[in-house]
Amino acid sequence: MPTAGNNTYRWLLRQGERLLRRRARPAPCEDAAFDAFLLLEKVTGISRTAYPLKKNDSPTAEERAEYLSLLRRRAAGKPVQYLLGEWEFMGLPLYVGPGVLIPRPETELLVEQSLELLRGRPNPRILELCGGSGCISIALAKARPDAEITCLELSAQALCYLRRNIARHGVPNLTAVEGDALSPPPEIVGRYDAILSNPPYIAAGQLPALQREVRQEPAMALDGGPDGLRFYRSFHRLYPPMLSPGGFLLYEIGEEQGGAVSALLRTAGLQKVRVLRDLSGLDRAVLGFSPPNK
Ligand code: GLN
Question: Are the beta carbons of 32 and 21 closer than 8 angstroms?
C-alpha cells in the first residue's frame, strides 16, 4: 500500500518517467517524460491544463494498475500512439493501432502543398493511393468540403481505421475504396485534379535496422522493395494518364529518393517536376504537373 506522501498523481507520474528512462530495453524511451504524461492522461483523463490542480490528489488502485501495465508495454517497445489508440495529424485526432501506419508530422507537407495548389480550383477531384489511417485525405476533405476525394487502401486492417476515422470526422465528400494501388479497381475512373500518395518507401534491407517502435508498424506500409522505389516505379506508368490537364501528382518520398523519383515523373511526361523539403530541411516530396492541354 502506498503511504500518504507517495499516493499522488505527481508521484505516479515521476515513477512512470523513471520506469521509461531506466527500465526500457534495449534503449531508454526517447521522450520518457512526454510519453509518461500522455499515458497518465489516457488512464486518468487529467489533461496538461488540469494537472497542476490535480497533482496532489490520490489515484485509485485501478488507475495505478492500468498505468503500470501501459508503462510496461511502452518500455517493451510498443509505440505510445498504439497504446493511446489515437494520434493527432494537423490537429485532427485519428484512431490508430497495430496494423496501420502512425501519421507523421512530415506528411503534413503533402496536405499543405495540395491545398495551396488547389486554391482557386473549385470542386477538385482528388485520389489518394495507399491511404492508411486516412490522415491526408481527411485533412483535405475537412479543408475542402467542395472536393470529391477517393482514398484507396489495400490492407483490411488499415481500412478499418480509415473507415472509423472518416465516420469520426463526418466527411461525406471522402470515400474509402478497398483495393491495390498497383492494379487499381474499377472505382478508380475518370480524371483527377490531384493524385497523392505516401506509399511504402523504405528499402526492404533497411527494415530490420529501423527503430524498434517503427518495426511494430505494418511492414506492408513501409516496405518499398529492394531499393524502396517499387511503388513509384509502378505508379508512374499507371497514374499520370489519369490526371486532368494541369493536374498534379504529389508523392511523399524518403530523403534520398528525390533524384530517382523526379526522373520517373519526367519519364512519364510530367512537367515542372520539383523536389520539396520538409521542416527539417530534408527532401520529403516530389511534385509534377500534367501538361495543361493534352
Ligand atoms: N516516414 C516513415 C518512416 O520513416 C515511412 C513511411 C513510408 O514508408 N511511407 O518510418
Answer: yes
Residues, the chain = 294
Out of 252, 253, 283, 284, give the residue to mutate to test ligand 1, the one with the largest number of ligand atoms within 8 Å of its CB: 252
Question: Which helix (H) or strand (E) is 286 found in, with range?
Answer: strand 283-289
Distance 10 CA to ligand 1 centre (A): 36
Calculate the average pLDDT of the chain: 95
DSSP-derived secondary structure letter, 226: T
C-alpha 83/C-alpha 216 separation (Å) is: 12
Q: Which atom of ligand 1 is nearest to the CA of 198?
A: 9
Ligand 1 centroid distance, CA of 54 (Å): 38
Counting residues of the chain whose pLDDT is more than 70, the rounded percentage is: 96
Q: Report residue 6's pLDDT band, with 50, 70 and 90 as the boundaries.
A: confident
Give alpha helix (H) positions in 45-107.
51-54, 61-75, 80-84
| Euclidean distance between CA atoms 236 and 288, whole angstroms | 11
d(CA 150, CA 187): 9
Ligand 1 centroid, distance to 2 Cα (angstroms): 43
CA–CA dist 262, 285 (Å, integer)? 10
* Interatomic CA distance for residues 18 and 74, integer angstroms: 13
Instruction: Find residue 289's DSSP bridge partners.
Output: 248, 271
Which atom belonging to ligand 1 lies closest to the Cα atom of 202? Answer: 8
User: Which DSSP state fits 211?
Assistant: -
Asked if residue 133 lies in contact with residue 161, where contact means CB atoms within 8 angstroms, the answer is yes
| Residue 156 CA to ligand 1 centre (angstroms) | 19
Ligand 1: residues with CB < 6 A are 104, 198-202, 214, 222
Measure the CA–CA gap between 149 and 196, rounded to whole angstroms: 11
